[in-house]
Design goal:
about 60 residues, alpha+beta, Macrophage Migration Inhibitory Factor, two-stranded antiparallel ribbon, 4 strands, elongated
């Protein structure tokens, strides 16, 4: 059972996350030859204050 874990900065829409889940699932099906029902995808929204880029939070960078 393939498991994909994806970390994103908060702010993506539900529709965008649905599309990511669909496309990642399809990529694993195509690449590994597994059934779609066996694929698990976890998206974790990370607060911008908790994501650092070059020693500064994404929030402070205005991302």
């Amino acid at each position: 059972m393939p498991f994909a874990q994806i970390h994103l900065l908060e702010g993506r829409t539900d529709a965008q996350k649905r599309e990511v889940i669909e496309k990642v699932t399809q990529a694993l099906v195509d690449t590994l030859g597994v059934a779609p029902a066996s694929v698990r995808v976890l998206i974790q929204d990370v607060p911008k204050a908790n994501w650092g880029i070059g020693g500064v939070s994404a929030q402070a960078l205005g991302r």
